[in-house]
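Q: For a teaching handout, I want to show students what a protein-ligand complex looks like in token form. Below are the inputs, and the small molecule is zinc ion. Please produce the holo structure.
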Amino acid sequence: MKRSKFRNRVVLAVGAHPDDVEFLMAGTLALLHRKGCRIFIATVCTGDMGSTRLRSQEIASIRFREAEKAASILDAPYVCLGESDLHLVFENTTRFKAVELVRRVNPDIVITHSPEDYMIDHQLTADLMWDACFNAPIPNYVTNHANPAKPTGRIPFLFYADAIGGRNRFGEKVQVGFYVDISSTIRVKERMLAQHRSQREWLRAQHGIDEYILQMRRWARERGSEAGRKYAEAFRQHRGHPFPEENILASILGSLCIIP
Ligand SMILES: [Zn+2]
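A: Here is the structure, written as tokens, with zinc ion included.
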């Protein structure tokens, strides 16, 4: 691996549910991992609605192990903030958890959901992470945790992944800030997604085909064709005050980053 000045940069990827990070950003995370960045993966919710036959506790623990396995492909620790799917609310307890996450990981870069998406857990996760990145350096922002982490030294670079299907709740297209060419990591993305066996097998039984993987590939190909590459993921950067505005992903990934 080529030594790079971005080696050991810390990237925190946060999805609402186990498998969201793999669907939306794993190709880019794999590229960042190759560049020597350290990857952390988190979900806000446990994925406890992800089964029609298992009780929520059972499916949540299965999905925790699946997410851990997927993260381990990028040598990434996986943590879950423990919220229940579809019960997530934006209030101080969840805000404190999100700030503790940012303070503990102390990331240079945070990547999360699009604030405009098809469902509320995704949108609230985007809001929670935006809020947590802002609050984490503020010393007087106390989280009431038993063993609180230290405030961070700065606000990280914040990026939003694609909305599911690239569309918001009205079915309108969400603006793309830039694409990342993931042609060289699509297989890693596929391998990470395949660790979520409980979800893959359920869809495979429903559709009679491996819809879980095929859907991911179709979407990556569509984003790729927009970017003039084989496979791509789409992102947008949070450039509102006081977040850093330079596109650090473009600096790390060079020509793999395509700005339309
Ligand atoms: Zn989700």
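A: Two things your students might notice: Residues 16-17, 20, 122 surround zinc ion (CB under 6 Å). The mean pLDDT is 96.
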